[in-house]
Specification:
This protein is an alpha+beta fold and 250 residues long. It is built from six helices and 15 strands. The strands form six sheets. The protein has a three-stranded antiparallel beta sheet with strand order 5-4-6. Strands 11-10-12 form a three-stranded antiparallel beta sheet. The chain has a three-stranded antiparallel beta sheet with strand order 13-14-15, with no helix packed on it.
Length: 250
């Protein structure tokens, strides 16, 4: 990029983006590969529960409150249970070893939920802390449709304003319920959401004001299409419910 015959460096490009279109910071869901699976690979002796280190590690990390035991796998994929606590000569008591051995450490677990508070995808069957501590209203259910992770949405949820830049147009036909399935748009970290090129700063989603403007325009158009679909559903529902309500009071 040139200005007045002088080359403009990355810092000036970043400043220009902030002035023109804002910092264009990326949303976390686009960095999560929801097609990957998890598995139980840890056991918390204090919580008496096996958990997945990807889904639930932060909830078992308080020093002095949790005794976390890693569970590896051998060449055949079967769990390997340690006999001592990690980094210690303390042996694991038999009653804890017995409980630890009852969990399934082999079966793959789908990342079927996303916590808006923790900004992390997780397996709902492997971690209950997100629902309990963060609140059910902050948990998005993730469904697969055509090999793509999607989130159910009515179109009026508060979270949509924060995540609309990383959800695509509704997939599938309208089933009459008013719910839409919005695919989550995943991209490689550090790549421009619009053109795929490298971004000037690690947490940015676009590489230039041009790409940021184009991306924002696409987000706006998707929002308008969602709003039109929701309005059409509400209008159709009004036409159906209206005569029924009138007939009920005759």
């Amino acid at each position: 990029m040139e200005s007045m015959g002088e080359e403009v460096g990355p810092a000036a490009v970043c400043q220009s983006m902030e002035e023109d279109v804002g910092p264009a910071m990326e949303e976390e869901p686009e960095r999560e590969d929801l097609s990957e699976t998890c598995r139980l690979d840890r056991y918390c002796a204090m919580c008496v529960r096996a958990f997945c280190s990807h889904c639930c590690a932060g909830h078992h990390s308080s020093p002095g409150c949790h005794d976390v035991i890693p569970v590896g796998r051998d060449a055949a994929g079967q769990p390997c249970f340690p006999t001592h606590y990690p980094g210690s000569t303390r042996p694991i008591p038999d009653f804890i070893a017995d409980r630890m051995g009852t969990a399934d450490y082999v079966t793959p677990l789908a990342r079927d939920a996303y916590c808006l508070n923790c900004m992390a995808a997780f397996c709902s069957s492997a971690c209950h802390h997100h629902h309990r501590d963060c609140g059910r209203d902050l948990i998005l259910r993730v469904e697969e449709r055509g090999g793509r992770p999607c989130v159910p949405c009515r179109g009026d949820e508060e979270w949509l304003a924060f995540l609309e830049s990383v959800v695509g147009d509704p997939v599938g036909e309208d089933d009459g319920s008013g719910m839409m399935l919005l695919p989550l748009l995943w991209r490689k970290p550090g790549a421009c959401f619009q053109c795929g090129g490298p971004v000037p700063r690690p947490l940015w989603s676009c590489c230039s004001p041009v790409c940021a403007t184009s991306h924002n325009r696409e987000v706006t158009l998707r929002r308008e299409r969602r709003d039109a679909r929701r309005a059409a559903h509400l209008l159709a529902k009004l036409h159906i419910d209206g005569p029924n309500q009138q007939a009920k009071y005759r």
